[in-house]
Amino acid sequence: MSAPDVGAHAVPVARVVRGDLVESVHHGHVVVLAPDGSVRLALGDPDVVVWARSSLKPLQAVGMLRLGLDVDDEELALVCASHNAEPGHVDVVRGLLSRAGLRVDDLRNTPDWPLDPEAAFEWRTTGQARSSLTQNCSGKHAGMLATSVWAGWSTEDYLSSAHPLQVALRDTVAALTGVPVEHTTVDGCGAPLFSTTLAGLARAFARIATARPGTVEQRVARAMSQHPWHVAGTGRDATRFMQAVPGLVAKDGADGVYAAGLPDGGAVAVKIVDGSPRPRPVVLAAALAVAGVDPAVLAPIGATPVLGHGSPVGAVVATFGPDA
Which InterPro entries match (predicted)? Predict the structure, then answer.
């Protein structure tokens, strides 16, 4: 039996313009939900089944809080993060581990260099090797470990899909998206990864962004929107979008995924079929504009120039939205 083809019903969502020619085209799927949950825009197939990758982290954080994870808002933002491993990120992860009686050696995520070039340079020049601490998912893994400690579960096998933590997180993903988890695999960091649909991912972000005060969903929304630097880092578009749009909850994911929820209940989700990160900010900005955000606020963040000899000679442009 062949695997479902995510590209089967994809449509052009961004064009790469160099000079006066379209040089290449990115295909994908986009869904924009109105505040009442109806579909405001659908490009491609909004019900396409996807691996949402790190865009699932806010949903997983909701599940950890429900299981008793005890963190402050900066730590919670790191649990939701694909961080740069700048010093401030690493310090928060160390603190979360320490408060739970854990060590860096307890992390089981794949060792890697910091995403931030300056942090990576400093890490390497001080003689450090690739580390689970500086891999961009270390906040999520620290949260998983701490949740297991406070729930009284084993920590050595916390990445097993049969571990009670992962069973609960799978159920949380299904509940928030409204879509049964039909596929499970292993994410790049080593954690179990659960399937959903693009529309389901948008619904989950809408639920988080509009959650009532006092709920764990609202805690996640508050942590991300009030501490956007902790969710990504210096210069990252996820951080910049949340800094620019009050109350926005946004999370990028590998292989061309992006999702965002607005405090009025609008939400968007994006999947670029070729997996490229290049058009993601452009497409997210166009989708948020369709959802009602001022395009002038979004334009500087979504701007993705095409360079020739180091200078702009074109741009990546969305095929939809106010500027299309």
Answer: Asparaginase_II
Residue 153 has pLDDT above 60, yes or no: yes
Give CB contacts under 8 A, 24+ apart, made by 279-282.
Answer: 279/13, 279/14, 279/16, 279/26, 279/28, 279/304, 279/316, 279/318, 280/237, 280/252, 280/256, 281/237, 281/241, 282/14, 282/316, 282/317, 282/318
Cα distances from 296 to residues 138, 244, 288, in angstroms, run: 34, 11, 11
Judge whether 115 and 235 are in contact, CB under 8 Å: no
Averaged pLDDT, 9-19 = 98
Contact 252, 82 (CB under 8 A): yes
Burial of 60 (0-12, 13-18, 19+ CB in 10 A): buried
pLDDT number for residue 2: 64
Of residues 52, 29, 32, 48, the one with CA closest to residue 40: 32
Domain ranges of the chain: 11-318
Spatial distance between the Cα atoms of 258 and 281, rounded to a whole number of angstroms: 8
Cα gap 62→166, rounded to integer Å: 13
Q: What's the distance, CA 254 to chain centroid?
A: 8
- Length of the chain, in residues: 324
Alpha helices in 126-260 (DSSP H): 138-151, 164-177, 198-209, 216-226, 228-231, 237-244
| Cα distance between residue 30 and residue 20, in whole Å | 26
Alpha-carbon distance of 251 to 159, in angstroms, equals 22
Contact (Cβ atoms closer than 8 angstroms) between residue 156 and residue 106 = no
Query: CATH number of 11-318: 3.40.710, 3.30.379, 3.20.20, 1.10.510?
Result: 3.40.710
Query: What is the rounded CA–CA span in Å between residue 21 and residue 213?
Result: 50
What are the tens digits of pLDDT across the range 101-114?
999 999 999 999 99
d(CA 91, CA 75) in angstroms, rounded, equals 10
